[in-house]
Structures are given as structure tokens and as C-alpha cells.
Amino acid sequence: MSLASGPREYTESDYPQVLERWTRSKTLTSLSELDTLLTVTSTFESWDFRWAYVVRYANDYRLTVEQRRTLLEKTLAEGQDSHRFYVALYGTNMRWTDLTRPGTAWIVRLVDDEGNETAPLSIELVARPGPLERRYFPYTSVWRSVFRIKFPTTTSSGQATIAPDARWFGLRFAGAEGNEELRWDIGGAPSKSAAAFGPGTPEGIRLDAFLHAGKYFE
């Protein structure tokens, strides 16, 4: 898996596979009490995922070329200024699993194998997941609390929160009942579709070419 940016060659039918590639799940169980303390599923909204998401969304809503351009540029820009995760979790006590409450049982951190550990910039509770959440993140259910969690890409000193040479990064959930991590292994070269354009091609030209290529969005 690569965190590299650049154009992607996706159609709307590719979205389920891309979603699966960027989604992780874990369950924390108490062996002594035979009880499930925490079940969590999360999607990292990477550049790669965002591109596939926009392709699927644009097809579903039959967006115009200009609407596609605006949505794609906005969505990709959001991924450049922060690391964002869609999180759905379940625990034995719903009040304890509300990550926005001061008394939550779980503290969530962005971590990597280089020892970096970063607190969220914000945690937003999605109180009533609607058709967008249920269609594009199908593991969403009435039994799970849903959150959008945002982390900075750099610290106040300018250090990357996910080290450039990190082999993996993840979300750590820790508390009095235990701890668990969701991990995404990273590395490898950018996709051929991204490399083919070359580092010197202006991003606007790349987007324009893809927005007007019917096989990618229609």
C-alpha cells in the first residue's frame, strides 16, 4: 500500500475493493469475562481512497464535469492538510464508547512504527448516519457509534506525524479495559497511473484530463 498522490484509473465499480484495501477491523475481548469490550472498524481516507470515493459519488449523483472537478479538488485537498479516519465502533456501554465525551473509556491516538504518537485535532460524532454513510461505509449500523477523526499531518515543530520511512501507521485505542491497534502497512511505489504523468506535470492538467475522460467518471 502506498500513500503516494497522483491520478488514479478507477471506475465506480472499483470502489468496494478500494474501500476494503483502506479499511481495518479489530475486536478486543475479555477472556476472563468472555465479553467483547470493543469492536472497531475504520477506513483511512487516503488520497487513493478519496479518488475512488469521488468517482463513485460522481457516478451515483450524475454530477456535471464542473461539479466533479470541484468535488475532486476539495476532497483531495482535505486529505493533504490532515489525516482523516471514518470510525465505527461498538462496546458494552455506549456512553463509554462515545469518544467525544470527557468520560469516554477509550483514548485514540495516531501511531506509527517509528514511535510517533499523535492526539486528534478533532473527533466528530455522526449522531445519525444517513444514506451517504450507509452506502459508502457499509459496516455502519445502528449498533455502532460513528465518528470522523482528524489528525494533523505535522507536529508544531514541523515533524511528520506519520514518518516518511514508516513501515506502518495505525489507530491505537487504549483505556482501563485494555488496548488495541488497527494497522495499515505502507510502502512501495506509486501506481503506474500516477507515475506515468511524471512529477513535473501540473496538477490542474492532470485533473482536467481525468475529469473529461468518460471511462473514469461515466
Description:
The chain contains seven helices and nine strands. The chain has one domain. It starts with 14 loop residues before the first helix and ends with a helix. The chain is globular, with a radius of gyration of 18 Å. Strand 8 and strand 9 form a beta hairpin. Helix 2 packs antiparallel against helix 3. It has a five-stranded antiparallel beta sheet. It has a four-stranded antiparallel beta sheet with strand order 5-4-8-9, with no helix packed on it. The protein has 218 residues and is an alpha+beta fold. The longest helix is centred in the middle third of the chain and has 17 residues.
Oligomer: single chain
Query: Would you count the extended β strands for me?
Result: 9
Tell me the Rg in angstroms.
18 Å
Tally the structural domains: 1
Task: Output mean pLDDT.
Answer: 85
Categorize the overall geometry: globular
**Main sheet strand line-up:** 1-2-3-7-6
Counting helices, strands and paired strands, the structural category is alpha+beta
SS strand fraction: 25-35%
Count of helical stretches:
7
* Helix-strand string: HEEHHEEEEHEEEHHH
Q: Runs with pLDDT <50, length 5+?
A: 189-206, 212-218
* Terminal-residue CA separation: 27 Å
| Largest β sheet strand count, sense and barrel closure | 5 strands, antiparallel
What percentage of residues falls in helices of 4 or more residues?
25-40%
